[in-house]
Amino acid sequence: MAEEKTSGIVPPKYDVNAKWDTCIDLTVRRFAYSSLAGAFTGLLFFRSPATRWASVAFGAGVGIGSAYTDCSSIFNGSPAKLASPKISGTPAPQGGQE
């Protein structure tokens, strides 16, 4: 009986449906919020309708780009991060002292 319950549960690492749900939700939210921020910025700073629409498009592109980055890290595991510099316990020699 315990085997039947555990065989139906998929570990979160392999649950593709949950990953897709997360990515779609993330994309829609970031697209909407970034577009609204671009529209507000366009109304605040620009007079021409063309530049206002360009501001909205830029905001939407930023939102979709950041959602794509996060979704690719969700599907492929954590992205490769830059290595932090190693700090040794001994101080570095100063300019004229050796």
Automatic annotation (TrEMBL):
The keyword RNA-binding does not apply. Its main location: mitochondrion. Component of the MICOS complex, a large protein complex of the mitochondrial inner membrane that plays crucial roles in the maintenance of crista junctions, inner membrane architecture, and formation of contact sites to the outer membrane. It is found in: Mitochondrion inner membrane. The keyword Mitochondrion applies. PANTHER family: MICOS COMPLEX SUBUNIT MIC10 (PTHR21304:SF0). This is MICOS complex subunit Mic10. It comes from Acer negundo (Box elder).
